[in-house]
Write a structure and sequence with these properties.
The protein contains one helix and 16 strands. It is an all-beta fold. The protein folds into three domains: about 1-65, SH3 type barrels, CATH 2.30.30.30; about 65-125, Nucleic acid-binding proteins (OB fold (Dihydrolipoamide Acetyltransferase, E2P), Beta Barrel); about 130-185, OB fold (Dihydrolipoamide Acetyltransferase, E2P), CATH 2.40.50.
Length: about 180
């Protein structure tokens, strides 16, 4: 299916020079003369590199045949993360580099989706919010305003700011988009 550059939206995956690229940001620019230009910031899903590219708004692209597979996280060892398809019991291994910052949100038995291109695992997508356990934080300061925050470290190694009333051992909800506290679990 052909997709015109003018129809780009954030998250769209297209083939550029045979590789799958995902649109991160885009902006339509109409110069005083000539055709409209689409300024994009795109990520190569095979290499992980990002580039800023400009396209004519009428340029056509093929949609990248990305397959999504729902799997459960099993374990991490020696810089490799193992996931299992609970229907076929097929195992998938991703390097720490492929998992990226998502490593801070992946906990045992968490259901995630893997993105595959031509049978090759590209990356892992985590849910919008995850529940993590606070393993290290300072005690609450008596009389501190309710808007005051403090540092906390979760069981996955993520360091974030939490409200004063959060104690060590509590389970909190964390937004995976920005790594911020979003409430008690």
């Amino acid at each position: 299916m052909a997709i015109e550059a003018g129809d780009f939206r954030t998250g769209l995956t297209v083939l550029v020079d045979g590789d799958p690229w995902q649109v991160i940001e885009f902006q339509h620019v109409k110069p005083g003369k000539g055709a409209a230009i689409l300024k994009t910031k795109m990520k190569n899903l095979k290499t992980g590199s990002t580039q800023e590219r400009n396209f004519n708004a009428s340029t056509k692209f093929e949609a990248a045949p990305i397959e999504k597979k729902i799997v459960n996280f099993s374990y991490a060892a020696d810089g490799m993360y193992s996931f299992m398809d609970m229907n076929t019991f097929e195992m998938y291994e991703l390097s720490e580099e492929q998992v990226g910052d998502n490593k801070y949100y992946i906990t045992e038995n968490l259901e995630v989706s893997l993105m595959l291109f031509e049978g090759q695992v590209l990356t892992v997508s985590v849910p919008a919010t995850v529940n993590l356990t606070v393993v290290e934080t300072a005690p609450a300061i008596k009389g501190a305003p309710s808007t005051q925050t403090k540092d906390a470290v979760t069981d996955t190694g993520l360091t974030l700011r939490v409200p004063q009333f959060i104690d060590q051992g509590e389970i909190i909800a964390v937004s995976t988009a920005d790594g911020k506290y979003s409430g008690r679990a």
